[in-house]
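Listing S7. Sequence submitted for prediction.
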Amino acid sequence: MTDKADHIAWAAEAVAVFQRHCRTGDVHAIADLICDLGHLAEERGLDFLSDVRRGVGHWYAERHARDATNSGRTLQSRSPSSREGAKNTMTRQRLGVRVR
């Protein structure tokens, strides 16, 4: 399994290649790349917004799994009545991530 540093390095390399081709600055590079990925998805007949939601869901899960690991906690499913569980559900809904 790869670690966070590997994923960051791969993403940085992809953004650097994109910037060389498009001559976009650091401030807009990721947003511009996401926009162009939308065009590519449309060209290929893919549901871009669905893919973005899924990607955000993966990022969210990995981020919170790392937070739990770093604090020595383990992630547990929370009942919908818990305040923190409800807060996480609302955050995921705002981001367009499916809540089950």
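Caption to Listing S7: primary sequence and predicted structure tokens for the chain studied. Residues 74-84 have pLDDT under 50 and may be disordered. Residues 39 and 45 are 10 Å apart (CA to CA).
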